[in-house]
Amino acid sequence: MAKLNRLRARFVQIQNIKKMTNVMEMIANAKIPKIKNQFKSAQEYFENLDYIFQNIVNNLGSKIDEFIKTESKKNLYIIFGSNLGFCGALNNLIIKKITPKLKENDEIIVFSKKIYNFLSINQSKLIIKYYQNIEESNFSEPILQVTNLIYQAILAKKYNKILICYNKFISIIHSKPQVHNLLEFQKNIIKYDGYGPEFEPSAAEVFEKLMPFYIKSVLEKLFIESKLVETSARRASMESATENASEILRKLELEINSSRQTMITQEIIEIISGKM
């Protein structure tokens, strides 16, 4: 009887876990289309702005180095990750990718509670800004703050590299940790048949004025992409957890039935033995 009670209690516990994972899977499923639309809009805006920006870079040629070349050895890392768990190894993959590269004079801006908790153990002195509970619905103000910080740092030639660490969306079930160098521009990737575009008052001035918009569009695109990867990973994790819970419940049900049948058989034997 005691064994049967333990099995029934375990069955109820697994049922409750299954309900929770099923609800979390449904929430993630509901959020994915909305974040996908956000990502599509951010990507289209970035691609159009990037085309204009690349035209300016082409026009400037080697003069682009006057804006970004610096003698500083310090790097700035901007890290996008998740605030909540249940999304697989996304945060661990980013941590493994960047921690070997960190130097004692580098600086870090973190958009992730989980990654901040890890980095604050050994690299707390490197963290200059930390944003927690920033999601796809309330990211505009923090992104604008970081944009202004980066723009002022570029003008002051404070950093050698500005590296954005995020999870790249490949498909609903696949992603890859990436590090994007914001100050790495590809030159001469746009070929003109005749004359290229002319910029007034000059390409250099347009570049300087357009830079904040470019930085903001990159940050927004990569932040939303990270959130899309996180939500997709959480949906997959919760789907797997729900399936595992269903399998455990099936086995427990068989074990409960077997235990109950054994107990009934034992009682029948005792009754027959008593009559004899």
UniProtKB/TrEMBL annotation:
It is a peripheral membrane protein. Belongs to the ATPase gamma chain family. It comes from Mesomycoplasma flocculare ATCC 27399. It is found in: Membrane. It holds the Pfam family ATP-synt. One of its GO terms (cellular component) is proton-transporting ATP synthase complex. Produces ATP from ADP in the presence of a proton gradient across the membrane. The gamma chain is believed to be important in regulating ATPase activity and the flow of protons through the CF(0) complex. It comes from the Bacteria. Keywords: ATP synthesis, CF(1), Hydrogen ion transport, Ion transport, Membrane, Transport. One of its GO terms (molecular function) is proton-transporting ATP synthase activity, rotational mechanism. The lineage of its organism: Bacteria, Bacillati, Mycoplasmatota, Mycoplasmoidales, Metamycoplasmataceae. InterPro entries: ATP_synth_F1_ATPase_gsu, ATP_synth_F1_gsu. Its main location: membrane. This is F0F1 ATP synthase subunit gamma.
